[in-house]
Inverse folding.
């Protein structure tokens, strides 16, 4: 199944929903970063959330960033998406191995630990919008829902899932976000609460061959669901040699000269895709000329 996101509305526009299948996206992230099972689940959920939230952006150059900073062994988790759902991200400690939790599932909450969640929306204005909440459970979906309720006052149902096989491979991944908008009456609130309790886990639905459309149909089909559009999502980094040159230039003349004198060259690695860029002594000297 190709990776894509579905966007829809229901109940005369008082509910909006987004659902996605992100299996290949998470597989690509696992391959790039060499993720352990628990790291695959944690980063995969965060990447899926970023992809879903990107469909709420309006401008072509807008971006959304999710930063999760917990005190668990995984360390920080970062996911960034542009408005076309090109998503990239990383986890500080990708090879963390933890025992399963008491329910026999990957213990993402323990891997993340206590800390906080930042959501950064860069809408091309002078300053980006930054929202902040403490982590509730570290299970990612609960924390995203809490962010929307606390920071943006938007009641939301959020589900994210990554199913990892015994050999560490990704079986499937996906998720959904459904939000109540101004004007939603108590009946639709009650309906959404009930259906969100009844819907199977995302990974179970995907294992049954269900689609993102099916997820929204289960939740909102009785309330006049209208599918507005579908769009692809993918794991794709936007790094380039030019960007890395700018990073080196930002170090300043003194530090660049020290690199030339002490190392003779520099290797810069992208956090998001692990691509390495080698800058020879001549490359660095040329950059020094730019600094003049």
């Amino acid at each position: 199944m190709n990776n894509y996101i579905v966007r829809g509305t229901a109940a005369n526009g008082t509910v909006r929903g987004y659902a996605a299948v992100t299996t290949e996206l998470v597989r690509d992230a696992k391959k790039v970063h060499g993720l352990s099972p628990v790291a695959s689940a944690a980063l995969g959920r965060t990447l899926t959330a970023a992809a879903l939230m990107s469909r709420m952006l309006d401008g072509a150059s807008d971006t959304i960033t999710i930063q999760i900073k917990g005190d668990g062994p995984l360390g920080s988790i970062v996911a960034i998406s542009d408005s076309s759902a090109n998503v990239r991200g990383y986890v500080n400690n990708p090879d963390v191995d933890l025992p399963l939790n008491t329910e026999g599932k990957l213990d993402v909450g323990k891997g993340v630990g206590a800390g906080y969640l930042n959501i950064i929306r860069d809408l091309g204005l002078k300053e980006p919008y930054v929202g902040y909440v403490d982590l509730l459970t570290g299970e990612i979906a609960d924390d995203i829902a809490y962010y929307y309720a606390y920071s943006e006052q938007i009641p939301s149902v959020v589900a994210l899932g990554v199913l990892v096989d015994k050999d560490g491979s990704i079986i499937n991944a996906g998720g959904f976000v459904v939000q109540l908008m101004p004007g939603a009456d108590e009946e639709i609130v009650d309906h959404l609460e009930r259906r969100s309790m009844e819907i199977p886990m995302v990974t179970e639905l995907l294992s049954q061959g269900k689609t993102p459309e099916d997820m929204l149909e289960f939740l909102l089909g009785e309330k006049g669901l209208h599918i507005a559009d579908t769009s692809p999502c993918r794991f794709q980094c936007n790094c380039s040699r030019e960007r890395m040159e700018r990073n080196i230039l930002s170090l300043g003349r003194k530090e660049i000269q020290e690199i030339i004198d002490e190392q003779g060259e520099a290797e810069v690695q992208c956090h998001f895709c692990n691509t390495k860029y080698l800058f020879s002594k001549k490359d660095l000297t040329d950059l020094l000329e730019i600094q003049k």
Notes: Residues 159 and 175 are 5 Å apart (CA to CA). The chain has a mean pLDDT of 94. The chain has two domains: 4-235, 241-291. The longest strand covers residues 170-180.
